[in-house]
């Protein structure tokens, strides 16, 4: 009877160990899930860094527009092709290759 009880405890412990190993490797919140979430966190951190950099550039642009007219004038010249009154616009074309 004592031998059967010792074997029974061993079998129960092995079954429990097997169940824990299954959950560790294949179940919910397993090691592969942890690695996938770690990759997602890294990707999201990179996206956040890119967006923070873009936001900083936009904030600097907004501050330039608030502070002075030079930034507004520069934008009007570059984006809209505007010129000041009394200025003459010259367009220089590249030489044609024969």
Automatic annotation (TrEMBL):
Keywords in alphabetical order: Cell cycle, Cell division, Cell inner membrane, Cell membrane, Coiled coil, Membrane, Transmembrane, Transmembrane helix
Record's bilayer topology term: Single-pass type II membrane protein
Domain of life: Bacteria
Pfam families: DivIC
Record GO biological process: cell division
Subcellular location: Cell inner membrane
Cytoplasmic side: 1-8
Cell division is among the record's keywords: yes
Keyword Signal in annotation: no
Periplasmic side: 27-98
Residue ranges that the Swiss-Prot or TrEMBL entry lists as coiled coil: 34-75
InterPro entries linked: Cell_div_FtsB (IPR023081), FtsL/DivIC (IPR007060)
Stated family: Belongs to the FtsB family.
NCBIfam families: PRK00888.1
Function (record text): Essential cell division protein. May link together the upstream cell division proteins, which are predominantly cytoplasmic, with the downstream cell division proteins, which are predominantly periplasmic.
Subunit structure of this chain's protein: Part of a complex composed of FtsB, FtsL and FtsQ.
Protein's name according to its UniProt entry: Cell division protein FtsB
Species: Alteromonas ponticola
Gene: ftsB
